[in-house]
Each structure stands twice: as C-alpha cells, then as structure tokens.
Amino acid sequence: MGTYIHFYDSPLGELVMTSDGSALIGLGLASQQASVAAIADTRPQEKSLSIFQETGRWLDTYFRGCAPSFTPKLKLSGSDFQKRVCEIMLTIPYGKTVTYGEIAAQIARERGIRRMSAQAVGGAVGANPILLIVPCHRVIGAGGNLTGYGAGMERKIQLLTLEKVDMTNLFVPKGKSLPKKQPLSKSLRPRLKVK
C-alpha cells in the first residue's frame, strides 16, 4: 500500500493529511519542515480518498468552533508508550486541558508504578503525528504553563481560544514570548499572562 496526501486550507495555514489508503496516519502544517520531511521520503501521491473527505468534514466542524461528533479512522505510530499517550490525548474533551503530569500519573497507575516522568510524556506528546484530532494542544504544563506545541505557541492559543478554554489561569512562561511575526488578536491579549 502506498502513502497518499491531501491538502486542506485552515485558519492555521495549509494542513497536509497523510494516509496509508485506509486510515489517517498524519496531519500537520504543510509549512513545517518536519511534516514535509516525514512524508517526502515515502514519495506520496496526492489522491482523493474517503478518509481525506471524512477528515475534511471533521476539520470543517472543528474550525466552526464545534466539537466533532466523530473521529476519522486513525493509525497511530511510534513506540507503545507514544501510542498510549496519543490514546490518552484522544480522551481529552473538547474545551478542556490536562497537564503532562496528569497523563504521567495515569500511565503510572496503569503500569502499577509509583511515578512516571512528565518529561517523557512531553516527548511523546511532541512526537504526535496527527495534530488537532489527537489534541496535543490540550496538554499544558503544571500550573497552567503553556509550554511546547510543535505548531507554535500562537496556534496553541488560537486553538484553545476556539474551543473556549478558560484562559484565565494559563500563561506563557517567562522567556518564552509569542512570535512577533504573528501578533495575537486584541481579543486574546488581555486574557493571557506572561510569568
């Protein structure tokens, strides 16, 4: 089976969907080199597939500011640990957030161990190949710290705002300013603190 791609124009920028022909295996920003490099090695073909149509419907619903009532067929990749973290992220409700530490604690309980590293979870979250649908943007640092999002802090804030997440206690850590190229809309500025 080959690898197939399809493009979707979104408010975040052009997205590239990747499929093995039956399931979605990737969704990322076309402008990000990691997304492009990951699919370039497979010599993908651009093709219209039912999985791309279904994913497009999911994205249309999401970008209208509504929680999609379905999930396209996904094929998760990575280590067993990375796949488990993705499975947990899939359970985070629309409009809610969880911390890296909360995911780590859940995995520790499942494994019957005392602790799991939140940093290890952060690495797995960062390796998520299916943005938005596997909602890594809903994972935040301890105490409301908006850390780490491969698509950029500005986009993470846009997505959380779209989902009407209460931004009151969320903040950008000191020294991690938002990109100057993409200023925040005025409606977001007063709701965000830099600590």
Automatic annotation (TrEMBL):
GO terms for biological process: DNA alkylation repair; methylation. Residues 174-195 are annotated as: Disordered. This enzyme catalyzes only one turnover and therefore is not strictly catalytic. According to one definition, an enzyme is a biocatalyst that acts repeatedly and over many reaction cycles. Its EC number is 2.1.1.63. SUPFAM superfamilies: Methylated DNA-protein cysteine methyltransferase domain (SSF53155), Methylated DNA-protein cysteine methyltransferase, C-terminal domain (SSF46767). GO terms for molecular function: methylated-DNA-[protein]-cysteine S-methyltransferase activity. This is Methylated-DNA--protein-cysteine methyltransferase. It catalyses: a 4-O-methyl-thymidine in DNA + L-cysteinyl-[protein] = a thymidine in DNA + S-methyl-L-cysteinyl-[protein]; a 6-O-methyl-2'-deoxyguanosine in DNA + L-cysteinyl-[protein] = S-methyl-L-cysteinyl-[protein] + a 2'-deoxyguanosine in DNA. It comes from the Bacteria. Belongs to the MGMT family.
